[in-house]
Amino acid sequence: MSFTDQKRRAATAHDCHTKWGLEGDGFRCALCGHRFKEGDGYRWIYGDARVFMSSDGRTLGVRNFLTCDECDGADVLDRWVERNREFYSSRFWALR
User: Fold this and answer.
1) Strands across the sheet with 9-10, in order?
2) Which of 24, 47, 57, 69 is the S-S candidate for 41 at Cβ 3.0 to 4.6 Å?
3) Which residue range is the domain that position 40 belongs to?
4) What distance, in Å, lies between the first and last C-alpha atoms of the chain?
């Protein structure tokens, strides 16, 4: 069983204390920001294969992400693509 098999897992103490992301604070749901605690359910989602067209006509890729039980569902990848599309829209020009 591999971490990248996209199956649900329960957060362990080791998971919670491992450095995730650049700042080391990335063990959270990418959709709602929930910071995982020991025992919380989460799932790693493979998103690298998905692309979308930005508002300025560029083709952009989607990164892999973690989701909590509450945000997970059949359309979780579609919702993540929409979040990325919104981020790369003119609305969030100052963040890029």
Assistant:
1) 9-10, 41-45, 65-68
2) 69
3) 3-95
4) 37
pLDDT in tens, 13-55: 999 999 888 777 889 999 999 999 999 999 999 988 888 888 7
Residues 96 and 88: their CA atoms lie apart, in Å, by: 8
CA distance 31 to 84: 10
Give the chain's mean pLDDT: 90
Q: Are 45 and 65 in contact (CB under 8 A)?
A: yes
List alpha helices for 9-75, DSSP H. 13-17
Could you tell me where the DSSP H helices lie in 1-96? 13-17, 76-87
Task: Give the dihedral of Cα atoms 93, 66, 42, 50; nearest 10 deg.
Answer: 110
Distance CA 96, CA 28 (A): 21
pTM, entire model? 0.85
Number of domains forming the structure of the chain: 1
